[in-house]
Write a structure and sequence with these properties.
The structure holds 2 protein chains of 2 kinds. Chain A is α/β, with parallel strands linked by helices. Chain A has one domain: P-loop containing nucleotide triphosphate hydrolases (Rossmann fold), CATH 3.40.50.300. Chain A is built from 8 helices and 12 strands. In chain A, helix 3 packs parallel to helix 6 and helix 6 packs parallel to helix 7. Helix content of chain B is about 25%, strand content about 30%. Chain B is built from 13 helices and 19 strands. In chain B, the strands form 2 sheets. In chain B, strands 1, 2, 4, 6, 7, 9, 11, 12, 14, 16 and 18 form an 11-stranded mixed sheet that branches. In chain B, strands 3-5-8-10-13-15-17-19 form an 8-stranded parallel sheet. Chain B has 2 domains: about 80 residues, no CATH class; about 325 residues, no CATH class.
C-alpha cells in the first residue's frame, strides 16, 4: 500500500483555484522532491496535506496509510504521522522549545491513549537529539522561533521532525535562507531518519538541497499540476534549462 | 428558633460585651445597626470593634455605589442579602452525585483528590478534608517558633486585640470606598498575618491551610503586617472553582510593610463565573492595598479567571523613601464575564519605584478593562514607574480596553507606559496543531506563553496549577 495517495486534487484560497487536478503517489521508504516555479502551488500542496484552514479542497482525495486524510483535523493528521517543516515557522512568544515539544509529545501520547510522558526521559532524549544538530541547551529554553536566525530555525524544525518521529515529512523550502553548513546539518538530519516505513517530500526551488538529500523521485509542478516525473537527472536538466519547456 | 425570638435577640441592645451566646445561625435579611450588633455579638467582639463597624455602617449610608467601572449588572438590593450566616454545609449537596457534573469534570482535570472535591463542592465540611486539623496545627506550630502569627481574623481579634486595633483600617480606612466601607461594617472573617521584626518566614503562607477561612468568602477581611526587615510570601485562593451561595463578595486586604520589609502577595481567584450564557456567578468587589515604608517592597501577583464581575485594583502606597511596588496580573475572561481591574501606584516618597505588568485575555463575549493610576506626588523626586499592558483577544465578540491614568507633580519623576493588543493568529494555531496539539491545547499553550512573565512571579507549584487553570478556563473559546 502506498503511504500517501493523492488523486485529482483541486484546492483554492478564497476564489482562486491553485491546485488543478494534482495526483501523486508516495511509497513507504522513499524520498520525493517537488520542484517548480514560484506560484506553481508547491506550498499550497503542503498546506493542504497538513490541513491549513485557509485552503479549501474542492475535489479529489488524499489517502494516508489507507485513511481519508481530508476527514481528519489538522492535529489528527499530525498525530497520524504527517509532519510539515515550515519555510517561515511562526513565533510563539513566551513558550520555550522544550515546553513546546513536551506538549507535542503529551498530545501525541494522549491521542494514542498511551501512558503519560516521563519528564526526565524526555529531557535526556531532547538534549541528545539537539546536540547532534548543533543546538545548545540554551536555545531550547528560548521561545519558539523568536529571535533565531533563518538557519537556526531550520535546525530547530529538523529537531522537531526527528523528535516526533513522523511517517511522512514534508519539508517546505527548507533550504531557503540556509548557508552550506546548515544545509549539511539539515541534510544529515534527514538522512539518519530514513527508514523503510518513512517517506519524505521535499519542496524546493533549487537543485542545491538535493546534493545533501538525494531523492528517489523528482516531480515538476507547474500551474497546480504535476507535469513531469523522473529520477535525479531531472533536477540537473532543470538547473540547465529552467522551466521554459513546461510552459 | 422562631423568627420572633431571633428578632428579639437582634433588637436587644448590646449589653453583655463579648459574653453573649446566641444560638441562632443566621441574621435575618437586610442591613441595619441591629444586624451589625448581632454579627459583633455572635463573634464575641470587643466594644472598639463594634464601634468600628457601626461607624463604618453609618458612613456607608451616606455613600453611593460607584458606577465608573466598565461593568454592567442588575442593581444590587442591599436589604435583600444575608450579612451573617454561620459556617455550615447542611443545605449543601448530600453527595458528589448531586454536584454539577461540569464542576466535577474540572476538579478531575485539576487533579484534585476526591476528599477535597467533596469539600470544595460543599458535600462535607472543609475541616474534614485534612484528616486532621493536624496538618494546619503542625504548620502553625512551626511558624509560632519564629514568632509568626497566622490565624483567622476572628482568632486574632480574640488573641491579639492590640495588634488588630493598631493596624485594622490603617491602610484601607472605612471611609475609603463604598465596598470597603460595607466590608468594614459587616466583615465575616479572613486571615491575619504578623511577621515580627527581622523575621523571614521560612515557608509560604497559604490561606489554603487556614482551613476555616474557606467559609468566609463573602466579606473577607485580611490584614498582613510585616515589621521592620521582615519577609513573607502569602498565597491566597486556590485554583479549584469555588461555589458560594452569596452572589455579592466585597473583600478587603490591608498590608502594612514597615521599613526594609518585603511582602509578596499572590492570588489565584476562581470564583464561580456563571454559566456559558452569563447566568449566575459571583460579583467580586475587592479593595486591596498596601502601605510601604522606607526601603520596603510590596509585590502583588494575581491570576484572575473567576467571577461574573471583577472590580479589583490591588494598590501600593509608596510612602517611604526608596520603597518599591510591583503589580503582575493575568486576567482571563470568557463567555459573558466582565472584569475591570488594574492597580494604583501612589508614589509619595523619594526615589520610589514601581512596575506594572498586566496581561488581559478576553474570549467569548467577555469584556475586560485595565484601569490603572500612576501618581507621582510632589515629594516623589526621582520616582520611576514602568507599565506594560498587553491584551490578547480570542474571537471577535469580546472586548479589551485600557484606561491608564498618569499624574505627576514632580518634574524629576518618570513614568513609562507601553500597551499592545493582539489576537492569536491562525498561523500560530496551525503551527501548534501541525505538531499534534488539539485546538484547545494550542490556545492554552499560546495564552500561557503570553502570560509567562506574570506566571513566573508565582511560587512554582502555584504557577503550574495556574497554568492548567488557564487552559481549563479557555475551554469552549475556540472552534
Amino acid at each position: 500500500m502506498a503511504l500517501l495517495e493523492i488523486k485529482n486534487l483541486h484546492a483554492r484560497v478564497g476564489d482562486k483555484e491553485i491546485l488543478k487536478g494534482l495526483s501523486l503517489t508516495i511509497e513507504p521508504g522513499t524520498v520525493h522532491a517537488i520542484m517548480g516555479p514560484n506560484g506553481s502551488g508547491k506550498s499550497t500542496l503542503s498546506n493542504v496535506i497538513a490541513g491549513h484552514p485557509a485552503y479549501e479542497v474542492t475535489a479529489g482525495e488524499i489517502c494516508f496509510k489507507g485513511k481519508n486524510l481530508l476527514d481528519m483535523r489538522t492535529d489528527e493528521r499530525a498525530n497520524e504521522g504527517v509532519f510539515l517543516g515550515f519555510q517561515y515557522p511562526v513565533e510563539i512568544p513566551g513558550v520555550s522549545y522544550a515546553a513546546f515539544l513536551k506538549q507535542a509529545l503529551i498530545s501525541k501520547k494522549k491521542y494514542f491513549g498511551e501512558k503519560p510522558l516521563d519528564p526526565v526521559q524526555f529531557i535526556k532524549r531532547l538534549k541528545v537529539r539537539a546536540q547532534a544538530l548543533g543546538i545548545s541547551d540554551d536555545m531550547l529554553k528560548r521561545p519558539v522561533n523568536v529571535g533565531f536566525s533563518g538557519g537556526e530555525k531550520k535546525r530547530l524544525e529538523t529537531l522537531q521532525m526527528g523528535f516526533l518521529e513522523p511517517d511522512f515529512c514534508i519539508l517546505d523550502e527548507m533550504d531557503s535562507g540556509l548557508d552550506i553548513d546548515a544545509l549539511r546539518v539539515v541534510g544529515q538530519g534527514v538522512s539518519i531518519m530514513r527508514e523503510p516505513h518513512r517517506s519524505f517530500l521535499l519542496i524546493t526551488h533549487y537543485q542545491r538541497l538535493l546534493d545533501y538529500i538525494v531523492p528517489d523521485v523528482i516531480h515538476i509542478m507547474v500551474d497546480g499540476r504535476i507535469v513531469d516525473t523522473g529520477d535525479k537527472s531531472l533536477a540537473l536538466k532543470l538547473e540547465e534549462k529552467g522551466y521554459a519547456d513546461y510552459k | 428558633m422562631a423568627q420572633k425570638e431571633i428578632e428579639d435577640i437582634i433588637d436587644e441592645t448590646y449589653k453583655y460585651g463579648f459574653e453573649t451566646n446566641v444560638e441562632t445561625e443566621t441574621a435575618p435579611k437586610g442591613l441595619n445597626e441591629a444586624v451589625i450588633r448581632f454579627i459583633s455579638a455572635k463573634k464575641q467582639e470587643p466594644e472598639w470593634l463594634l464601634d468600628f463597624r457601626l461607624k463604618a455602617y453609618r458612613h456607608w449610608l451616606t455613600l453611593k455605589e460607584p458606577h465608573w467601572a466598565k461593568i454592567k449588572y442588575d442593581p444590587i438590593d442591599y436589604q435583600d442579602l444575608y450579612y451573617y450566616t454561620a459556617p455550615k454545609t447542611k443545605d449543601g449537596p448530600k453527595s458528589l452525585d448531586e454536584v454539577d457534573p461540569e464542576i466535577l469534570k474540572t476538579y478531575e482535570k485539576l487533579g484534585i483528590p476526591l476528599q477535597e472535591q467533596k469539600a470544595l463542592a460543599g458535600v462535607v465540611a472543609v475541616d474534614a478534608v485534612f484528616d486532621s486539623v493536624s496538618v494546619a496545627t503542625t504548620y502553625r506550630a512551626r511558624l509560632a517558633e519564629q514568632g509568626i502569627l497566622f490565624c483567622s481574623m476572628s482568632e486574632a481579634i480574640k488573641n491579639y486585640p492590640d495588634l488588630v486595633k493598631k493596624y485594622l483600617g490603617s491602610v484601607v480606612p472605612y471611609t475609603d470606598n463604598f465596598f470597603a466601607c460595607l466590608n468594614s461594617a459587616v466583615f465575616s472573617d479572613g486571615s491575619f498575618v504578623f511577621i515580627p521584626k527581622g523575621v523571614k518566614s521560612p515557608m509560604e503562607l497559604s490561606s489554603y491551610f487556614r482551613i476555616n477561612a474557606r467559609h468566609s468568602g463573602q466579606f473577607e477581611r485580611t490584614l498582613i503586617v510585616a515589621e521592620e526587615g521582615a519577609y513573607v510570601s502569602y498565597l491566597e485562593g486556590c485554583t479549584a472553582p469555588q461555589r458560594d451561595e452569596n452572589q455579592l463578595h466585597a473583600a478587603v486586604v490591608e498590608i502594612v510593610v514597615l521599613d526594609d520589609a518585603e511582602v509578596k502577595y499572590s492570588t489565584v481567584q476562581n470564583w464561580y463565573p456563571g454559566d456559558k450564557n452569563g447566568v449566575g456567578g459571583i460579583y467580586n468587589f475587592v479593595t486591596k492595598r498596601g502601605l510601604c515604608r522606607n526601603r520596603s517592597k510590596l509585590s502583588w501577583t494575581q491570576v484572575e479567571t473567576g467571577s461574573a464581575i471583577t472590580w479589583k485594583y490591588p494598590s501600593c502606597v509608596l510612602l517611604g523613601d526608596d520603597s518599591v511596588g510591583e503589580f503582575y496580573s493575568v486576567a482571563l475572561t470568557n463567555h459573558y464575564q466582565q472584569a475591570d481591574t488594574g492597580t494604583k501606584m501612589i508614589h509619595l516618597g523619594k526615589n520610589t519605584r514601581s512596575t506594572i505588568v498586566s496581561k488581559g485575555i478576553s474570549a467569548g463575549h467577555s469584556n475586560q478593562t485595565y484601569r490603572g493610576l500612576v501618581k507621582m506626588g510632589k515629594n516623589a523626586s526621582d520616582g520611576r514607574n514602568f507599565s506594560r499592558c498587553d491584551s490578547l483577544l480570542i474571537g471577535n465578540k469580546c472586548g479589551a480596553h485600557t484606561v491608564p491614568v498618569m499624574e505627576s507633580a514632580n518634574k524629576s519623576a518618570r513614568i513609562e507606559h507601553e500597551a499592545t493588543t493582539s489576537k492569536i493568529s491562525d498561523e500560530q494555531l496551525f503551527y501548534c496543531e501541525q505538531r499534534g496539539l488539539n485546538p484547545e491545547e494550542a490556545v492554552s499553550l499560546i495564552v500561557n506563553g503570553f502570560c509567562k512573565e506574570v506566571m513566573q512571579q508565582l511560587p512554582m507549584e502555584f504557577a503550574i496549577e495556574a497554568g492548567r487553570l488557564i487552559g481549563i478556563s479557555l475551554e469552549g473559546s475556540v472552534g
